[in-house]
Prior knowledge:
The chain has 164 residues and is α+β, with helices and mostly antiparallel strands. It has a single domain (2-163), classed as Aminopeptidase, CATH 3.40.630. It is 26% helix and 40% strand. It has helices spanning 37-40, 48-55, 62-68, 109-122, 138-146, and strands at 2-15, 30-34, 71-76, 79-90, 93-100, 128-134, 150-163. The protein has a 7-stranded mixed sheet, sandwiched between helices. The radius of gyration is 16 Å and the shape is globular.
Amino acid sequence: MYKEIIHADREYYACKKLSNQWQDFMPEGFQLQMVDADLLANVDLKHLDTLKEEMTSERPSVDDFLAKSFGVCAIHENELAGWCLSEYNADGRCEIGIETTSDYRQRGIGTALTLAFLEHALSNGISEVGWHCYKRNEASAKTARKAGFDKVCDYKSFIVLLKE
């Protein structure tokens, strides 16, 4: 069995308070919507399958996500431009999972989504939100800082690939 170990430097950020309003960052022509059953019923919405995949990356099903997690998304016309989802919700805190689709990057949508997510989280019993990213992902770290997250630490992670 062949084994490859990849070392990956990562950063961890945390946020406990809302520093800006999401409306100040959302571009014109986009609407914000909670990730809920109504959103998921819109079968014509582009990137809906990718959103559902992300919803089940940490939860066993979409229904389990809807029952135990939360999220917000940005919609432009009939296309999901991005989403921000809660992950690993426990004891009044959660982690953040965020994606901006490739056609909509570098427009402030990620920051707007993060701030809308924080607004919802902090007003619904979440006292701290965490953000992990690879050190080489400068755009992710920049979005976290712009949304009011403070860097807590650097850490190393290891990805082990097993091949037969």
